[in-house]
């Protein structure tokens, strides 16, 4: 029985239209795969309830930075005293360094192994700030942070310029091998971040750390296809402008920005 000419032509066209990678299984296997990470979220709902959700999302900077600021055991100031970050619940009140009290709307956490490089070799090591590294009792004792933690402290190269006073700077930018040290535990470490109603800072060990904010350049860092996946992590925002303005400028926001990094 002969194959009809129409079917023969259709099969020929299908082969021609198929991506060359499908005809080369080795090339298909060699393609880099998107790394994923588990993100745990606790959020305050409009009715006052607390939601707990788990997400599997890309291990990309804009996602990871929302979860990797404070290590387990970090003490956060509240009207009732200092509470470990892992014990905070959405709805709790946080005492800000500006003197106000704000409600915790969102807490995110993830687990990573700092000794392993992140996607594309990204540095995922922790930063240890030893006691008195930034002056007397700043901090009071050792503070360990994730790669996304920022403190309100003017870098030495910006001092003396009034236009650059009081900027938020990534803690790892101060690594000097003595007072601020990189550390890379080979075991899993749980990290957290906190989102308040308004972007603010609060004191951890005498240093002013910022609450979570994606930054004023966030819209350039994520494609439209990825935005919904990102906003699914937050129940209280639907777009980047809902995070409100930054309380203080960031040093890294002044750096040149490329095109969207997340496809």
List the helices and strands and how they pair.
Layout: H1 5-17, H2 25-30, E1 36-44, E2 50-58, H3 61-64, E3 70-71, E4 75-78, E5 81-84, E6 93-95, E7 101-112, E8 126-129, E9 143-145, E10 150-152, E11 168-170, E12 180-183, E13 189-196, E14 201-204, E15 207-210, H4 218-221, H5 224-231
Antiparallel strand pairs: 1-2, 1-7, 3-13, 4-5, 6-7, 7-13, 8-9, 8-12, 10-11, 14-15
Q: With helices defined by DSSP (H or I, 4 residues minimum), what is the helix count?
A: 5
Note the run of SSEs as H and E. HHEEHEEEEEEEEEEEEEHH
Low-pLDDT stretches are: 14-22, 256-263
Secondary structure tally: strands: 15
What is the approximate shape? globular
Indicate the radius of gyration in whole angstroms. Answer: 23 Å
Q: In which range does the helix fraction lie? A: 10-25%
Distance between the termini: 49 Å
Structural class: alpha+beta
> Beta-strand level of the residues, as a percent range?
25-35%
**Largest sheet, described in full?**
6 strands, antiparallel
Mean pLDDT equals 85
State the main characteristics.
263 residues; alpha+beta; six-stranded antiparallel β-sheet; three-stranded antiparallel β-sheet; 15 strands; globular; disordered C terminus
